[in-house]
TrEMBL record:
This is Putative membrane protein DUF2306. The chain crosses the membrane at residues 6-22, 34-55, 61-78, 85-104, 124-147, 159-178, 190-211. It comes from the Bacteria. InterPro entries: DUF2306_membrane (IPR018750). It holds the Pfam family DUF2306. Keywords: Membrane, Transmembrane, Transmembrane helix.
Length: 227
């Protein structure tokens, strides 16, 4: 199981890196994205199983479930209409709320702990997971209420979920497994560079996609058109 998790994780990181840098909608982006999704689902599933049954770790259960949720909802956004995925989205929204509440609970446990840790993890990442889960669930509720999504909002929903899932995987590998890297690398900021790059790309693509949409909206309004 551990070998499956490692191989899937490395494949997800490689495919995700290609998908992030490839032109959105291009064949390279679609193919690498498909590999990324498959590898991420396998990686998160194996991580969850290990954290539940082989090497109990509450934080890993939270991270694996949240990442699984983000990837699945990000994929459904571009593969199915809102009507087709209504029930699935509602179920996933409840999972996101549940995992968010669990992350908050663990975060407060970490704050109350003498070591400031829960399963070797401090409170801030747990609160970040909690906020991400609530944000995702809130946007799911909004989507179900609206009944439709298109254009820039649809692409933004897909991008932030996939990229944040990539950020969790990248952080877990380069910072969470830092002891497996040579000591000279651990003493510098090299291991943080991939995490910072993914963070930058997350905001870069969101701003670019939403800014282009706003420009289109302004153009249509000035021309007297309708959205």
């Amino acid at each position: 199981m551990k070998l499956i998790h490692i191989v899937a994780g490395l494949l997800a990181l490689a495919a995700g890196a290609v998908a992030l840098y490839a032109s959105k909608g291009s064949p390279l982006h679609r193919h690498s994205g498909a590999v990324f999704v498959a590898a991420m689902l396998l990686m998160t599933t194996s991580a969850g199983v290990m954290a539940l049954f082989y090497s109990p770790n509450r934080v890993n259960v939270v991270a694996a479930t949240l990442t699984f949720y983000l990837v699945v909802t990000g994929l459904l956004t571009v593969r199915r209409s809102v009507a087709e995925m209504r029930l699935v989205t509602a179920a996933l929204m409840l999972i996101a709320v549940t995992i968010s509440m669990r992350a908050f609970d663990l975060g407060f446990d970490a704050l109350a702990s003498p070591s400031g840790l829960v399963d070797h993890v401090p409170a801030p990442p747990l609160f970040l997971f909690a906020i991400a889960g609530l944000l995702g669930a809130g946007l799911d509720a909004r989507l179900l209420w609206a009944g439709q999504i298109s254009g820039g909002h649809r692409l933004a929903r897909h991008l932030w979920r996939m990229t944040f899932a990539m950020w969790i995987a990248t952080t877990s590998f380069f910072l969470g497994q830092a002891t497996f890297f040579p000591e000279p690398m651990r003493k510098t900021a090299l291991l943080a560079i991939p995490v910072l790059l993914v963070t930058f790309l997350l905001f870069w693509w969101l701003v670019r996609v939403l800014w282009k949409r706003e420009r289109a909206v302004r153009y249509l309004k000035s021309a007297g058109g309708k959205l």
